[in-house]
Amino acid sequence: MLHAAEVRINDQGQIEAPGKDVRVFRGEAATPLFGSVSKENDSVRFVPTLPFVAGESYRVEFQSTDGTWSTKRLRFELPKTEKPTVSLASPAVLPANALKIYLHFSHPMEQGVFLDRITLHRQDESLVHGAFRETELWSPDGKRLTLWLHPGRQKTGVNLNIDEGPVLRAGETHTLKIAAHWRSTAGVPLGKEYAFTLTATAPDHTCPDPRRWQLTAPQAGTRARLKLIFDEALDPAMLHSALKIQTGAKTVPGAIQVAAEAKSWSFTPAAAWRPGPHTLEIDPLLEDLAGNNLQHPFEVDRDQPVTTPPQTTTLRFDVR
Amino acid sequence: MKALCLTLFLAATLGASAALIESPQKGGLQIKSLSSLSFGPEGLLLVAESASASVVAIQTGDVGPAQARLEKPVADIGAVIADGLGAKKEDITVLDLAVNPASGRIYLAVQRRPDNAALIVTVDAAGKVAPLSLEPLSWARVTLPGGTESKVTKVTDVAFDKDRVFATGSCNEEFASRIFTIPVPIKHGATASTFSAETYHVAHRKWETKAPIQSFVPYSSKEGTYVVGAFACTPVAKFKVDDLESGAQVKGVSMVELGSGNRPLDLFSYTDKSGKEWLVVHTQRFKQNLFGPSAMWGARISMDYLNAAETNENAARRNEKDAKGPDGIEVVDALFGAVQVDKLSNTEIVVLRDTAGILSLEVAALP
Description:
- The structure holds 2 protein chains of 2 kinds.
- Chain A is mainly beta.
- Chain A contains 3 helices and 23 strands.
- In chain A, strand 20 and strand 21 form a beta hairpin.
- By secondary structure, chain B is mostly beta strands.
- In chain B, the strands form 6 sheets. In chain B, strands 11, 12, 13, 15, 16, 17, 18, 19, 20 and 24 form a 10-stranded mixed β-sheet that branches. A 5-stranded antiparallel β-sheet of chain B has the order 2-10-5-4-3, with no helix packed on it.
- The longest helix of chain B has 15 residues, at 2-16.
- Chains A and B meet through strand 3, strand 12, strand 13 and helix 3 of A and helix 2, strand 8 and strand 11 of B.
């Protein structure tokens, strides 16, 4: 007769047991876990197809060489990791036709549930139904969620926009709520509800125009920050990759900072500025908060005369 | 003897599809995430792997004969999968379903929470659910331009079409649509070509400049080769993809609109007994339910609508409040409640159906 205590989990997360066969179940499940069983002398090893889950209990049934079955229960404790947190990584003041909001989490989060975990509420606390586009878009590290306000409601004249109105109402505040029970991939929940206030201003149908930006050129021989002030908030995520400084054909290496409200941007060079002409190169796909980029407004009304966007994608400045 | 036969069978079948993959890798494949599954010929499984901004081609060796058609429905398959993955039923999502046309075997892309672990499981004729063992299989991974630095963080769909593989992607910063092409044989380590797509949105007389394609199907006619795509906001459009160079922009032509409040999930085409071609759009209605027993439904659209030329301001628009019409657009009853669907043949589909929160897998007839 075998002793249940002889069942153990090895360093590779596999279950080893004495005897000739083993089956592993989650809790009281009727069907065993997917995995493979290998035999070595008088013991067996179960390798799960997917790793065991922290916080779960498992039932190990193992068969001794005389054919009798025994059972042992194992529990994988939740790791003692800190609770995840979430912050709003988008301006809290945004046009009523804003397209997207970024949420930054401190840890990678479980996926496939964001529509159940995030709600948007009007000033009177009523729920905004169908506020978000259903496509789930995470950054590769699983920490940044791009939350699209439903384009079908944010676009002028689409049936959803007509039938149910835009997600955001100009002149009103809204509350974005993140549920406390949303877990990190380690199984640890946020532990408290997060609420972020969003204030909607008038809709924005105009392309960003770099000619309206204020650029403060730094002094040569220093590592002073180059400062850029926009006349409107721009997409805070795209600002990390859409602007670069060049001198001649060379890109100046350095660090980028984006202000919290995404209305200014600064660049600190890795080495002291060299005197001479420089350019700020702008990705024409850079968007403002309403999805208007340097080439096209997000919506083009075909019944209206065509207005050509500014198409300025370079700002020149001299370092002296 | 049985083991030997199986080994010989696998060796023969893996060799048979070698021409579809160039420089195949042997074993060691780990799938980081799953967003879409699709089959090419000879058991070639295409996997959209968003976490690595890649398409992975796998020679499954599952090349037929076509004897794995599901014999009877599998009740509460969600519980079976959850037990196998060691998770609660509510912590499992079936992200996609693909039927291997060579064998009829069903492949499901499954995600487990909270760790987001991804697994492909198969369902055989008897309804037995088992994980797809990747270890013995040959494969190739092709990254999308920019790789993990790309702003395309969701590969929304992937499909095989004769001499190339198409994939569509959604950006997590720009509101943009991308179509990718990968030449066949699929070369491990290669990079896909890309072009951006825009189409005309007949509902509001605006250029739908950048809306992401949710799902698509390759389609060839005497006029050329098209990607027929469905957007997150109801229009179905075609994009001519002959002679396109990487980086080009292609304008789509609207075919139909399914009516506001509908979100297309999946597409496939088939030919009915009379020889007429149809495009089936599997759809989720996210507004108030106006007809039928479920918010999950589907319609078949006559391929005649593909004949629309240029920017089609008069593309057919379905009235979302009506179960019928216009001509050539018909509700497919078998798709009510469908969470996932794929074509089994020109007469049957495989449906993963949600009935009051319980998932079942079954074969259903096409009209």
